[in-house]
Amino acid sequence: MSMAMTTASTMTANTVQGTGSKDGWRRDGLIGLWGRMIHRDPEVYAAWLEDRDLTTITAALLRLNERQLNRLGMSRATLALDVEALAVRADREGAIVSDILRIVGEADNADRMPGAAHAIAAE
Q1: In sequence order, what DSSP letters do the residues of the chain get, joined into one string?
Q2: pTM above the 0.70 mark?
Q3: Could you report the average pLDDT of every consecutive run of 10 residues in the chain (123 residues)?
Q4: Can you give the pLDDT at residue 28?
Q5: What gap in Å lies between CA 102 and CA 106, rounded to an integer?
Q6: Nearest in space to 36 (alpha carbons), one of 103, 102, 44
Q7: pLDDT at residue 26, rounded to an integer
């Protein structure tokens, strides 16, 4: 095999696998590239990624038997709903944590500048 053919086949393999240094599309592989191409709006793309992730999580959990799912508080009959509820709960808890960190950060800033808290209260 000639050097040119070896290089071309290596470049083709790297492009297909997404390991080449010149291909900037390697974020989530070929599926991620497809998603970015058909969903150019960032909000639509984020929704597509979330749906894809929930499908992947559900598929992974389907490998467990019913006893193992019951230990997690899930059932094979309602697994898709359980995974969606888990995602909603994670989003809700993430928002709560963000709010708590913001409040603690504000309180920490008020402790550093005690006159600023009194000035705000006086207004």
Answers
A1: --HHHHHHHHHHHHHHHT--SS-TT-SSHHHHHHHHHH--SHHHHHHHHHHHHHHHHHHHHTTS-HHHHHHTT--STTHHHHHHHHHHHHHHHHHHHHHHHHHHHHHHHHHH-HHHHHHHHH-
A2: no
A3: 42 43 57 70 83 94 96 94 94 93 81 58 49
A4: 67
A5: 6
A6: 44
A7: 56
**Alpha-carbon distance 89 to 119, whole Å?**
38
Residue 62 is which amino acid? L
> Given this model, what pLDDT does residue 47 score?
86
Residues 6+ apart with CB under 8 A from 103: none
Please say whether the dihedral angle defined by the alpha carbons of residues 20, 21, 25 and 27, taken in this order, is positive or negative. positive
Alpha-carbon dihedral of residues 6, 11, 17, 22, nearest 10 degrees?
160
Tokens read off for 61: 């959990």
